[in-house]
Amino acid sequence: MVVREKFESELKELKGRLIQLGTVTSEALTQAFTALENQDIEAALEIIDDDVKINILEEEINDAAILLIAKQQPVASDLRTIIAAIKIAADLERMADFAVNIAKSTIRIGKEPFIKPLDHLKEMHGITIEMIDLAIQSYDTENLAEAKEVSEMDDRVDQLYGETIKSLLQRTNENMAQVTQLTFIARYLERTADHATNIAENIFFMVKGRHYDLNE
Prior knowledge:
This protein has helices spanning about 1-40, 40-70, 75-110, 120-140, 145-170, 175-210. By secondary structure, it is mostly helical.
């Protein structure tokens, strides 16, 4: 019984670290987009520097998960929880990389006036942050209805992505370099939403023991 209690305590700690990773990833993406809007080069540089902390946290989660498997020989449901943690951590780390990429695009754009308002990008960003936060909440409570909602929000991001790219391609004669960077940012946000959907799918796997394609 003592062994089981220790295992459950360590599993709880693993989940806590993953929730922490989700929080800092969401914050990094928010800070990155704020830096873009404000054309704040210093803030963008800080986001790039801080990424190492997120990478370390993901490594700690992976190490803890592998150690749990090696030491405790978990039953099927516990093993799914551990495997899901590894996969979700990888998705979150990739999202944090997109925050870094947005920061780099911000630096490349510099102080040049924007060729068009960032309204579509801002809406995409807002939805992706909602998706991440809801996905982490769903993971914490194992709420499948919330996980499904995350996947449904991805449709709007995809729609906005298409509209944004179409709009930007009409501006190529104005400032091709900036059009390129804004196109990249739209892609980073679209991919972030895809990774949030991956998290939702892994929550279903963790709870149900089956793989579900929530993009169907």
